[in-house]
């Protein structure tokens, strides 16, 4: 079989499909692992700075210090804003089973958008549209 014949076979198409599927599985696995890490980081931040309460007086200082340390070790992606997002992720979805199911369907960008919707009623409408049917627990005021 010469090059021209090889290009026109289902053999090449099959190999391309195998690689495309592997790439998609890799992306999904990485996304799931990172979303889990973000939730765990958020949980740890809440435990450390807030001791389980909604607000902490010294919380922002902890976030700044943590941001500097993580950025030194791991590079970009751990600024104050992202750390606040991780904390909010945990506070919005405190049930491990719920976020685990959620992250199987959505990537971090989608989760961040849903967290930014202030109305829980609106979240109830958005989440099913994204392929997941879930009613988030309200954040305590």
Radius of gyration, rounded? 20 Å
How far the N terminus sits from the C terminus, by CA atoms, comes to 70 Å
Tally of alpha and pi helices: 7
Structural class: mainly alpha
Q: Stretches where pLDDT falls below 50 for ≥5 residues?
A: 132-141
Percent in strands = under 5%
Shape field: elongated
Helix content: over 70%
Largest sheet: none
SSE pattern, N- to C-terminal? HHHHHHH
In total, the number of domains comes to 1
Average pLDDT figure: 78
User: How many E strands?
Assistant: 0
Characteristics of this structure?
single chain, 141 residues, mainly alpha, 7 helices, 74% helix, elongated, disordered C terminus
List the helices and strands and how they pair.
Blueprint: H1 3-7, H2 10-50, H3 59-74, H4 80-92, H5 96-105, H6 108-116, H7 120-129
Helix pairs in contact: 2-4, 2-5
């Amino acid at each position: 079989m010469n090059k021209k014949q090889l290009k026109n076979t289902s053999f090449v198409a099959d190999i391309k499909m195998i690689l495309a599927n592997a790439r998609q599985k890799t992306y999904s696995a990485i996304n799931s692992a990172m979303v889990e890490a973000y939730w765990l980081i958020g949980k740890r931040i809440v435990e450390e700075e807030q001791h389980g309460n909604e607000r902490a007086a010294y919380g922002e200082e902890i976030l700044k210090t943590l941001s500097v340390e993580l950025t030194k070790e791991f590079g970009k992606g751990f600024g104050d804003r992202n750390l606040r997002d991780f904390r909010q992720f945990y506070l919005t979805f405190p049930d491990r089973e719920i976020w685990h199911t959620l992250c199987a369907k959505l990537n971090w960008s989608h989760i961040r958008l849903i967290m930014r919707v202030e109305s829980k009623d609106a979240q109830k409408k958005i989440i099913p549209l994204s392929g997941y049917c879930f009613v988030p627990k309200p954040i305590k005021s």
